[in-house]
Design brief:
Layout: H1 2-17, H2 22-33, H3 37-45, E1 51-56, E2 61-67, E3 71-77, E4 82-88, E5 90-99, E6 102-112, E7 116-119, E8 124-130, E9 135-141, E10 151-153, E11 160-162, H4 165-170, E12 173-174
Antiparallel strand pairs: 1-2, 2-9, 3-8, 3-12, 4-7, 4-9, 5-6, 5-8, 10-11
Helix pairs in contact: 1-2, 1-3
Bound molecules: fe (ii) ion.
């Protein structure tokens, strides 16, 4: 059953997140999990919603994430490190730096199936997929993501907007309209 392999991975991530060298432990575990990327992608495909929080406590938050290539979700911060393991398709991290009165585009990082990356606590990214298929990934945050106050950032001015899933989706843009992809 594909769902069991995901449940097993969640248990092992929780152990890694509670360990002393948790950043390396989570990274190593996610790299190891790529050996089962087809099964994990199937388990993520089985969820009704594109983004599902499958676990959270004080040590970590674990989400399954699917993105489409034509929609780009708004720039935001996490205020903690996040590990991204892509099991199907290609997820795109659209990176930004805040400057007075604006957001400066810092390039796009394509994370292909089979890859694991980590964004540090200072990172600001918008998020989408590349190619024709939805991306399928796990995001592991190094703390209780839903318990902290964090921000989205206005695309043009870089002003802070309180993070909520509602605002996150409402501020999404069509990729075809964006200079970052031209
Ligand atoms: Fe994010």
């Amino acid at each position: 059953m594909p769902q069991n392999i995901l449940e097993d991975l969640i248990l092992r991530i929780r152990q890694a997140a509670a360990s002393e060298d948790r950043v390396s432990a989570i990274r190593a575990l996610l790299q190891e999990s790529q050996a089962d990327k087809e099964e994990l992608a199937e388990a993520i495909a089985a969820f009704e919603e594109d983004e599902v929080m499958v676990f959270e406590d004080e040590t970590c938050s674990i989400w399954t994430c699917r993105y489409f290539a034509d929609v780009v979700f708004a720039p935001h911060e996490h205020c903690m490190g996040v590990h991204i393991a892509v099991y199907r398709g290609t997820e795109v991290e659209v990176l930004y730096k805040r400057e007075p009165g604006k957001l400066r585009h810092g390039g796009n990082s394509l994370v292909k199936a089979g890859s694991v990356v980590r964004l540090g606590p200072e990172a600001i990214h918008a998020i989408t997929a590349d190619g024709n298929a939805q991306s399928h990934a796990i995001h592991v945050y190094e703390g209780p993501l839903t318990k902290i106050e964090r921000s989205l950032f206005d695309w043009t001015t870089g002003e802070r907007v309180a993070f909520s899933m509602e605002n996150f989706h409402a501020m999404a843009r069509r990729k075809a309209s964006m200079a970052e992809f031209s």
